[in-house]
Amino acid sequence: MPKILEVKNLRITFPVNGGRFAPAVDGINFHLNQGKVLGIVGESGCGKTVTALSLLRLIEEPGRIEEGQALYYGTVEGVSPPPRRPGPQRPEPPEGYEGPEATPVDHLMIEDLRREPTAEINSEKAPDGGIDLFKLSDEQMRHVRGNNIAMIFQEPMTSLNPVFTIGDQISEAVRLHQKVGKKEAEEISIEMLRKVRIPDPQKRIHDYPHQLSGGMRQRVMIAMALSCKPDILIADEPTTALDVTIQAQILELIQELIDDMHMSVILITHDLGVVAQVCDDVLVMYSGMIVERAPAKRIFSKPKHPYTIGLLDSIPPLFQDAGELLHTIKGTVPDLSRLPAGCRFAARCPRMVDACKARVPPYKYVGEGQEVRCLNY
Amino acid sequence: MSAYLLKRLLTMIPTLFGIMLITFLIVRLAPGNPVSLKIQAAQGLKSTALSQEVTDQMLKLYGLKVDLPAGYENFIKDKPAPVRKALEWLGQNTIQFKIWLVNVCQLNFGMSFKDHRPVLEKIREALPITLTLNLLEFLIAYLISIPLGVYSALGRESAVDKGVMVLLFILYSLPTFWVAYLLLMYFASGDHLNWFPLGGLHSEGYETYPFLMKIGNLMWHLVLPVITMVYGSFAFITRFSRSTMLEVVKQDYVRTAWAKGLPRRQVIWKHAFRNSLIPQITLLGTLLPALLGGSVIIEQIFSIPGMGKLAFEAISSRDYPTIMAITTISAFLTLISLLLSDIAYAFADPRISFEEKQQA
Fold first, then answer.
1. Is B274 an 8 Å CB contact of chain A?
2. Least confident of A104-118, A175-189, A363-377, B88-102
3. Can you give the residue ranges of every domain in chain B?
4. Does the beta carbon of A160 lie under 8 angstroms from any beta carbon of chain B?
5. B258 vs A145: CB contact, 8 Å cut-off?
6. Which residues touch A312 (CB under 8 Å, ≥6 apart)?
7. Closest in B259, B266, B275 to A145, CB measured
């Protein structure tokens, strides 16, 4: 299973009062496999969205990418791919092998590198000839956006420009990246709208966003994102702002289009139901760190990290006696400007041991492609 | 659209009526009247010993005293003095207001008390002058301020942004009359530079100039007044343009535009700028009436015979017909310009529609 994107030791900080910096994302490592859907779950403020935005280098000032690499294994217009590093290549996993984390090599890749980064990770050269998105020029990055990596945002109501027709907004990206004429771009736009099942696309392209419902607008956003056939689609809570029946339709649509267009997807959500429905692999983030990663099925059948377990227990059961309280995780998320030295979940953790407060637990491989940052394993 | 326009035009009638009534009352309630001013001017300030008869005659001549209907006269005759006075005032002004209203509806604004010329003619002379001056000011102020505001917003908190803001604040704080006199002193008097004329609109022999030279001569006269008018608007419009732009670049759709990979120029000047113009139209709607009003101070200092000067002179000589005509015409044009800015909204923002549109 070839990788399409690999993020190494990504650290993103925001300045807080007194000239200090709060790490919104604190040294995370993950990769996205070709044609797979990677889910990133976690509560608000855990760094999911910032991570996604950083891949397009769209983090708003004053936040910045402090260190790390985002290696993209594809071709970017105007960038010659760096030569492959001489030496032994990473062996391709055998056919039919599920879950790249299962190989010990992969496991080593995601060791906790935050405290003591190794020379290899910090070196300028990408090991497998990937293009480091963080090192591209602004102009090169422009070609990546929309063309190689596209993004769908959470709020379909505000993510479309109110003063231009949806046809304008879709064909704008098409004309930019595919170098086609106005007429052709319009045809592609109509085709895309048909693909996301908007009825009467010839007429709809002349509509303004306010003339469409929330679900329709999200379909337009998807059409816009997919119009240039990107390798990677980042969907940041694409269904959160929609009502439940529309959510299901949109998810189904995304799923179908992914299969159809052979895209790789990073799906950010706080809805575990969404994860169960579409994701292949899952990262669980807490307070800027990845605390657990596993194939989606494992997360539900054998969650390991107390936080993941807490999240799953917090899903309201279908049958519950009236008056019985919903399960919650006690306590609050730590303040990013005053992070504890040890495990960030320690203060809320029911299985906390003294050692948890001493240092951030390293990743522990627990089999079946599952890794967890917890001293209990 | 046409149904909307008709509705708007019809609602203008009561508004205009209200404005006319209030104008009439304010003018009539103001102390002093044109007759006593005229008598004072004719006889020197000290003498007020003119018989009531002469005064009454003059009042009647100017239409400031009319014969009350006989029935009404009888009705108020035997009331106690203060009540009778009040009722007489009420009767007089009701009848005079009615006469004035009927005349205005026939576009007859009467004669000026001051020089006995038709008021409309005086306004027709003054209005184009003020309009030219203000349009120039608007154009220059907007052409400079909007880009300045946008660039200031994009480089927010940078040294340039802070510098521009401080400079504009200083300009905004300088009183107009002071700047006007400084400009006159340094650029129009013999003592320093003698680049521009002291006042007025034309040089002598203007009528004989060819067309282009006429324009040039007019512009030459307008340089100092326009500078005086424009520098204060910079701060206002630039700040407004900056803050709307700052608001807009934070919007989700601007992030979408970046995420599409659009070049910076397109993100800013297409996606963000177009949206930042919508609040500007509101501002324009409130500024349009000022186009017609004219600035009393500037027109006075630079001796420009515009609306401001006309209004100022009319007020100081209690020239009732002129005051009321200027107010009524300005009110009417203000209502029209507000309507225009509402229509401009619909063009700038597709979400605003005047028609009952069928929802898709």
1. yes
2. A104-118
3. 3-105, 119-359
4. yes
5. yes
6. A272, A299, A300, A303
7. B259
* CA pair distance B332, B20, nearest whole angstrom: 10
Q: What is the spatial distance between Cα B213 and Cα A262, in angstroms, rounded to a whole number?
A: 71
Contact of A59 with chain B, judged by CB distance below 8 Å, is answered with no
Tell me the pTM. 0.76
Question: Higher-confidence residue: B166 or B59?
Answer: B166
Residue A245, classified by CB atoms within 10 Å of its CB into exposed (0-12), middle (13-18) or buried (19+), is exposed
Q: B260, A173: Cβ pair inside 8 Å?
A: yes
The SS3 of residue B151 is helix
* pLDDT exceeds 60 at position B219: yes
What is the structure's pLDDT at B277?
Answer: 87
Which one-letter amino acid corresponds to residue B30?
Answer: A
Closest CA–CA distance from residue B278 to any residue of chain A (Å): 10
Cβ–Cβ contact B247 with A under 8 A: no
Its CATH class, for the domain covering B119-359, is: mainly alpha
Residues of chain B found within 8 Å of residue A143, distances taken between Cβ atoms:
261
What is the pLDDT at residue A2? Answer: 85
Task: Give Cα separations from B136 to B140, B143, B229 (angstroms).
Answer: 6, 11, 10
Closest CA–CA distance from residue A4 to any residue of chain B (Å): 19
Contacts of A208 in chain B (CB under 8 A): 350-351
Six-digit token string for A314: 């917090």
What pLDDT is attached to residue A84? 52
- State both tokens at B28: 């009539």
Mean pLDDT score across all residues of chain A: 83
CA distance A250 to A248: 6
User: What sign has the CA pseudo-torsion B80, B85, B89, B91?
Assistant: positive
Q: What pLDDT shows up at residue A360?
A: 87
Convert the pLDDT of each residue in B265-274 to its tens digit. 899 999 999 8
- Among A244, A294, A306, smallest CA distance to A273 is for A244
Q: Which chain A residues touch B252 with a CB distance below 8 Å?
A: 153, 155, 158-159
Q: Is the pLDDT of residue A282 over 90?
A: yes
Closest CA to A263 of A37, A30, A2: A37
| Strand bridging mode A131-132 / A289-295 | unpaired
Inform me whether the pLDDT recorded for A106 exceeds 50: no
ω before A62 within 30° of 0 (cis)? yes
Nearest CB to A163 within list B252, B350, B360: B350
A64-72 vs A3-16, strand pairing mode: antiparallel
Instruction: Report A:123-152 residues touching B (Cβ under 8 A).
Output: 142-147, 150-151
SS3 A4: strand
Q: Rounded CA gap, B341 and B279, in Å? A: 11
- Does pLDDT of B322 surpass 50? yes
The CB density around residue A52, as the number of other CB atoms within 10 Å, is 22
Of the residues A163, A193, A226, the best mutation for testing chain B's interface (the one with the most B CB atoms within 10 Å of its CB) is A163
What does the pLDDT look like over A299-331, one tens digit per residue?
999 999 999 998 888 888 888 777 788 888 888
Residue of chain B with shortest Cα separation from A151: B259
B308 and B130 Cβ atoms separated by less than 8 Å: yes
Please determine, for residue A119, whether its predicted confidence score (pLDDT) is greater than 80.
no
Q: Does A212 touch chain B (CB under 8 A)?
A: yes
CB distance A163–B274 less than 8 Å? yes
Q: What pLDDT digit, counting tens, does each position of A77-95 carry? A: 777 665 554 444 445 545 5
Chain B's closest residue to A141, CA to CA, is B261
Q: Chain B contact for A207, CB < 8 A?
A: yes
* pLDDT surpassing 70 at residue A103: no
Q: Is the minimum CB–CB distance between A56 and chain B shorter than 8 Å? A: yes
Closest residue in chain A to residue B272, using alpha carbons only = A161
